[in-house]
Amino acid sequence: MSIKGQAYIVGAWEHPTRKAPDKSVAELHAECARGALQDAGLGKHDVDGYFCAGDAPGMGPLNMVDYMNLRVRHVDSTDIGGSSYIALVAHATQAIMAGKCNVALITLAGRPRSEGQHTGTAVRVVNPAVPDSVWEASFTPNTANLYAMCAMRHMHEYGTTSEQLAWIKVAASHHAQYNPHAMLRDVVTVEDVVNSPMVADPLHRLDCCVISDGGGALIVTRPDIARGLKRPLVRVMGAGEAVKGQMGGDVDLTYSAAKWSGPAAFAEAGVTPADIKYASIYDSFTITVLMQLEDLGFCPKGRGGAFVSDGNLISGVGKLPFNTDGGGLCNNHPANRGGITKVIEAVRQLRGEAHPKVQVPNCDVALAHGTGGLLGSRHGGATLIMERE
Questions:
Q1: Contact 173/326 with Cβ under 8 angstroms?
Q2: pTM for this prediction
Q3: Is omega for the bond preceding 202 within 30 degrees of 0, making it cis?
Q4: Which residues, at least 6 apart from 214, have a Cβ–Cβ distance to it below 8 Å?
């Protein structure tokens, strides 16, 4: 059954902190929940469904429902990395359609900055839960080099350049300068990016996302509840999920799971890439953005470098404004599952509540997409399409 028009996002709130040494992860979750409920004009007593991923303490919903003293009848703790929270909006919609809940609260929070986590460069140790971890561990893989492999292969196959990848960071920085909470607010140039230290060839330091504390929350409700609230109406139109792994040995590093999740979301929403006025694209690294843009159909495969060049992702300048809050590259990346911020900024754009300098005119259809896991190994993809009613 299609989820098109079956639920609305009525609350969206992003935690303003980027470093929270005096707060627990649970406290950040609760503060995000309060912010989103206030944004929606609802109270804690209205919530009857709770959704979170692996960033929530311990056993996720069990601990957080108790910590926030919620009374719910449905929970979901789907964890597919950075794509989790985009998928959870669709899961909340499905739960609402099935009568499992009426008001769904979705929260994310993390403290990787305060905890000194080097999430991109830390060696990934043997994990018995990962089938081939014991065989790969001797090669000391980490997140950065498993994304760098994809960048190197894309350059080999299609002639993509470091300068083209740099334009993605440049665009993010142009937007971040207007975000008072962004970690990196200085506008950078292509030269700044390619001259920054190499982290994992061909990715430079400025090709990588920031590491921050913080979080965010969303409220999803039945249509009749949404229409009774004094908030602009943002309707869920379509969603898709996919997993890409080792493909039984048929490895191709040049595409992502968005190849499948994107078309599914567009088909359900009844729109095409040409209809999208704004795109929130998960940006753990610049190559993540470039490959997702191709796989979502915004440009042909191999043409991502040309598509992102010359400011084409900058609001008011380019053909497809993206990540107008500065994204993970400049604003925040509060947990390895930080995709919730992509939905939050898309909601701002659809409501007309983004910063005036980056607000997309007549923004009526927006997309949020996340990649979770390791682009060069196995990962999930989730795509969400929303509409201003």
A1: yes
A2: 0.95
A3: yes
A4: 14, 15, 16, 17, 18, 20, 28, 109, 110, 332, 334
Q: pLDDT tens digits, residue range 265-275?
A: 999 999 999 99
User: Taking Cα atoms as reference points, which of 40, 64, 39, 45 lies closest to residue 54?
Assistant: 64
pLDDT for 264 equals: 98
Q: Residue 132, exposed/middle/buried by CB under 10 A (0-12, 13-18, 19+)?
A: exposed
The three-state secondary structure class of 240 is strand
Which two structure tokens, joined as six digits, stand for 208? Answer: 């990588």
Instruction: Write the Ramachandran bin of 81: left for phi over 0, alpha for psi from -120 to 50, otherwise beta.
Output: left
Residue 349: is it exposed, middle or buried by C-beta count within 10 angstroms (0-12/13-18/19+)? buried
Q: Phi first, then psi: what are they for 291, rounded to 5°?
A: -70, -40
Say if CB 388 and CB 368 are below 8 A apart: no
pLDDT at residue 128, as a whole number: 62
> 215: alpha, beta or left, given left = phi > 0 and alpha = psi -120 to 50?
left
Q: Mind listing the pLDDT tens digit for each residue in 202-259?
A: 999 999 999 999 999 999 999 999 999 989 999 999 999 999 988 888 889 999 999 9
CA 352 to chain centre: 20
**Residue 363 Cα distances to 34, 353, 388, angstroms:** 27, 11, 8
Residue 244, helix vs strand vs coil: strand
Write out the two tokens for 210.
């920031």
CA gap 172, 289 in Å, rounded: 11
Q: Give the pair of three-digit tokens for residue 121.
A: 């460069």
Residues 208 and 196: beta-carbon distance below 8 Å: no
pLDDT digits (tens, 9 = 90+) for 86-135: 999 999 999 999 999 999 999 999 998 998 876 666 655 556 666 766 77
Cα distance from N-terminal residue to C-terminal residue, the chain: 21
Q: How far is CA 239 from the centre of its chain?
A: 14
pLDDT in tens, 352-380: 999 999 999 999 999 999 999 889 888 99
Tokens of 341: 């911020």
- In angstroms, what CA-CA distances link 47 with 11, 60, 70, 105? 12, 17, 7, 6
Secondary-structure breakdown of the chain: helix, strand, coil percentages, each rounded to the nearest 5: 40, 20, 45
CA 136 to mean position of chain CA atoms: 27
Q: Whose CA is closest to 30, among 79, 64, 81?
A: 64
Q: Please state, in angstroms and rounded to a whole number, the distance separating the CA atoms of residues 365 and 265.
A: 13
